[in-house]
C-alpha cells in the first residue's frame, strides 16, 4: 500500500522544517544568534528565504523550534490525566518523566545552546513570551476540565501557580547547565526541587481539577 499524497506532503514539509531548523541552529551555535541572518540560514539550508519565513515567521523560532511542545505540553498533560488524578499530580508526574529523559523541552539543552540563548536578549525575550503563552494555554485547559469559563479566576490562578513552578524549574535546569553541571546531576537536583515545589502547592491544588 502506497502512502497517501497528503501524508507524503506533510512528511516532506516536516522534513524541510527540521532541516531548516538544524542548519539555523548550527549557524547560531557557531557565530551567535544575533550574528546570523535569515538569508544566511536560507543559503545553508539551500532553500529560498521566503521558505524559511513561511516555516518560521520569527527568527527566534528558528532557534526555539520546540515552541509548540513547550507551550502546549502542560495543557495536553492536564487533558490526558487519568481517572482520579488531579492536574497537580499529572503535571508533577509528567515533569519527573521529562527530567528522567533529559528532555530539551524542559531545559536540558546542553551548555552551548544554553549559552547562546542566555547571550541573546531576543531569545530570552521570546522565552518569556513562551512562558506567558504556556500559562494561558494551561488556564484554558483547566477551565475546560473544571467546567468553568475563561473569565473564571480559579483556573487562571491555578495556571499561574503551576506555570510558575514549571518556569522556575526550567530556569533552574538552564542555570545549572550554564554552570557546567552534567545532565545526570541536574536531573537529580531538579527532581528534589520539583518534589519540594509541588508539595508546597498540594494544600491549595491537591483536590483541584481531579478527573
UniProtKB/TrEMBL annotation:
Positions of the UniProt region annotated as Disordered: 1-21
DNA-binding region: 37-56
Segment forming the signal sequence: none
InterPro entries membership: Homeodomain-like_sf, HTH-type_TetR-like_transc_reg, HTH_TetR
Superkingdom per UniProt: Bacteria
Keyword Heme: no
SUPFAM superfamilies: Homeodomain-like
Limits of the HTH tetR-type domain: 14-74
Key words, A-Z: DNA-binding, Transcription, Transcription regulation
Keyword DNA-binding in annotation: yes
Single GO MF descriptor: DNA-binding transcription factor activity
PANTHER family referenced in this protein's UniProt entry, alphabetically: HTH-TYPE TRANSCRIPTIONAL REGULATOR BETI (PTHR30055:SF234), HTH-TYPE TRANSCRIPTIONAL REGULATOR RUTR (PTHR30055)
Name the record gives this protein: TetR/AcrR family transcriptional regulator
Native organism: Actinoplanes aureus
Native organism taxonomy: Bacteria, Bacillati, Actinomycetota, Actinomycetes, Micromonosporales
Amino acid at each position: 500500500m502506497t502512502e497517501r499524497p497528503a501524508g507524503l506532503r506533510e512528511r516532506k514539509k516536516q522534513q524541510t522544517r527540521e532541516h531548516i531548523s538544524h542548519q539555523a541552529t548550527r549557524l547560531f551555535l557557531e557565530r551567535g544568534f544575533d550574528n546570523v541572518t535569515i538569508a544566511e540560514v536560507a543559503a545553508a539550508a539551500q532553500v529560498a528565504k521566503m521558505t524559511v519565513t513561511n516555516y518560521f515567521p520569527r527568527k527566534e523560532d528558528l532557534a526555539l523550534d520546540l515552541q509548540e511542545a513547550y507551550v502546549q505540553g502542560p495543557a495536553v498533560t492536564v487533558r490526558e490525566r487519568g481517572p482520579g488524578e488531579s492536574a497537580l499530580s499529572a503535571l508533577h508526574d509528567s515533569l519527573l518523566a521529562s527530567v528522567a529523559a533529559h528532555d530539551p523541552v524542559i531545559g536540558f539543552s546542553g551548555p552551548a545552546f544554553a549559552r547562546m540563548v542566555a547571550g541573546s536578549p531576543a531569545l530570552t525575550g521570546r522565552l518569556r513570551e513562551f512562558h506567558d503563552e504556556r500559562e494561558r494555554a494551561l488556564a484554558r485547559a483547566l477551565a475546560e476540565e473544571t467546567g468553568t469559563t475563561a473569565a473564571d479566576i480559579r483556573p487562571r490562578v491555578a495556571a499561574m501557580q503551576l506555570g510558575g513552578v514549571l518556569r522556575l524549574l526550567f530556569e533552574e535546569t538552564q542555570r545549572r547547565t550554564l554552570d557546567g553541571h552534567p545532565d545526570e546531576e541536574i536531573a537529580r537536583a531538579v527532581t528534589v526541587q520539583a518534589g519540594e515545589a509541588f508539595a508546597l502547592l498540594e494544600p491549595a491544588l491537591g483536590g483541584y481539577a481531579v478527573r
